[in-house]
């Protein structure tokens, strides 16, 4: 088989400040450099459609805070990808191996062998678990619950974006493994599915009586609110966290397009003595896929435990939607995540 000498790659035209469209990106063809020592040529197989990419490409966020994750205009957009090694100068990564890392939206890429992560394959289960249970979302959920929040069985926990890629795993781990009482927040059609994952109840954030429904689902309030959304959902939930309760902020999905947000209930943080903390428990560097985390030493234990939970059926390991598409459609599919996208983990398989 002859090896490719060029690749189609999607780059960022400009760092957006509002709603992202396909014009935000540009499809280009670039040459692939010959392999140097300890490098691999990768054929990209499956791409993660993570909403966090929106913050990595944004013009307004502090680039120093994002570090290597920030994508500048003219650079390739990156995401978590499973790829096959099709050429190698590394003894560690021979041809035919599958790896995972933060790679560009492209058909192929040349990467340093140092820091590559093996794709995690469990016989009898989806081959794409490395991007769901063992991806950003799964490991963030696990580390947040067991290393950061240290949830206890008696905790009442509320989770926003509970039908999303991170929320679905957070719900399952908190409810099925820790034994917490879990209340999800999601759009109406997805709420029954959230309850099937272990949530005691699920509140439709689009309902006109959203606040009243929160009161009914959380009559005594919650001990912990794990927030992936921000905006109006966060504002409403501030009133429903118990005295001395905790709000763990892991995402801000509602703010990515710079819609104005007014927290009318912010004084409740003072009145209820709430503790609010940001969660960035799991990140990757752009260049090699090397994993960096606030709880790096806990990763082997997390992966081992998650593997067992998949094998024994505790975790629903098929909460994935995968669409086959050419590289030309990657940006369009990713944008669809922000338009009431599919539940669970949304993946694109390149064809």
Description:
The chain has 351 residues and is an alpha/beta fold. The chain has two domains: 160 residues, Quinone Oxidoreductase, Chain A, domain 1 (Alpha-Beta Complex); 142 residues, 3-Layer(aba) Sandwich (Rossmann fold). The chain has ten helices and 17 strands. Strand 8, helix 4 and strand 9 form a beta-alpha-beta unit. The chain is globular, with a radius of gyration of 20 Å. The two termini are 17 Å apart. About 3% of the residues have low confidence. This is Enoyl reductase (ER) domain-containing protein. Keywords: Oxidoreductase. InterPro entries: ADH-like_C (IPR013149), ADH_N_2 (IPR041694), GroES-like_sf (IPR011032), MDR_fam (IPR045010), NAD(P)-bd_dom_sf (IPR036291).
Percent strand = 25-35%
Taking all Cα atoms into account, the compactness measure Rg is 20 Å
Tell me, rounded to a whole number, the average pLDDT: 90
Under CATH at level 1, the class of the largest domain stands as Alpha Beta
Unreliable runs, pLDDT <50, ≥5 residues?
A: 284-292
Total of DSSP H or I helical runs spanning 4+ residues: 10
The share of residues in helices is: 10-25%
Q: How does the major sheet shape up?
A: 7 strands, mixed
CATH superfamily of the largest domain: Medium-chain alcohol dehydrogenases, catalytic domain
Order of helices and strands: EEEHHEEEEHEHEHEHEHEHEEEHEHE
How many E strands?
17
Q: Within the CATH hierarchy, at the fold level, what is the topology of the largest domain?
A: Quinone Oxidoreductase, Chain A, domain 1
Shape descriptor reads: globular
- Count structural domains: 2
Q: Give the CATH architecture of the largest domain.
A: Alpha-Beta Complex
- Structural class assignment: alpha/beta
N-to-C terminal Cα separation, in Å?
Answer: 17 Å
